[in-house]
Amino acid sequence: MRSFTLSLTALLVSATMAAAQAPPPAPAQDGRAGGGPGAQGGRTGGAGAQGGRGGGRGGAPRAPAGPVKRMPDGKPDLTGHFSSDAGGANYGLEAHPSQFATPPSRGIVVDPPDGRLPYQEWARAEFMKRWTPERGYDDPTAHCFVAGFSRSLWTPSPFQILQPPGYVVILMERMSWRVIPIDATRKHLPDDVRLWQGDSIGHWEGDTLVVETANNNGKTWMNESGDVISYAATAVERFTPVDADTIDYKVTITDPVVMTRPYTLGFEMRRQQGEILEVACHEDNQDLEHLKHVKEEARKNGTLK
After folding, report:
1. I want to staple 227 with a disulfide (CB 3.0 to 4.6 A). Which of 12, 188, 190, 222 is the partner?
2. Which pTM value belongs to this model?
3. Residue 207 banded pLDDT, cuts 50, 70, 90
4. Domain map of the chain by residue range?
């Protein structure tokens, strides 16, 4: 494993001191209904603290957004607290109405243009199986594993972005993080090293932060409904500030094991006022036994084999 030039502690201290001068962010725009793996098929809760709940602390109404803030080197200043306007992507990347007791999703697939993920036949069949109530127990977040580099950003929970020199750090309220070195010459980890969050490296293209991620372990689900991603997936994320309070987010994922071609997801991240809270998964994980019972009953009655 490569060693970081700076420890995570030093990064956070440096970035927090720099961010202390920034004005407070504006409030979150989307609500947070409870529940880890899901509201699907009675999966209310499930992931415990991995499931959504009201995050951050309220404050003054949002002021009109100003121009994009800048760091001393002229690059956009992305620091602050944000929540994603992902329209229910944690319940499905494709648009769908409420079904299997799962909340609806407006869909965040921007390519292909029809909004349908280019699943291979076997992978769509697996996704449909995961969507049933008896598979809620299999969602890794139900067992307090981290959500993965992609799902972490559209789970209905706030996150904080820090920008110490040479890095962008994303702190998730659900007690995980991404430390992204900004170094276009850096190489990814050896192929036999596989991580829940993958290995991310960033660089700037004008005002857009481009983050390339590889070395995924293939164990994550992309949401509570079970959209599929494999160990072979690589991703290119693009964080483009629109104004002082809004970041346009796009991610193109290439996954030859699961999909027939690359696909792109997109939504906006909006600044919120307040701070992220401590969300300890096991302390708030009250539904895992229920999910286990649902799965065991399905095996007994033959609906799950």
Report:
1. 222
2. 0.77
3. very high
4. 8-301
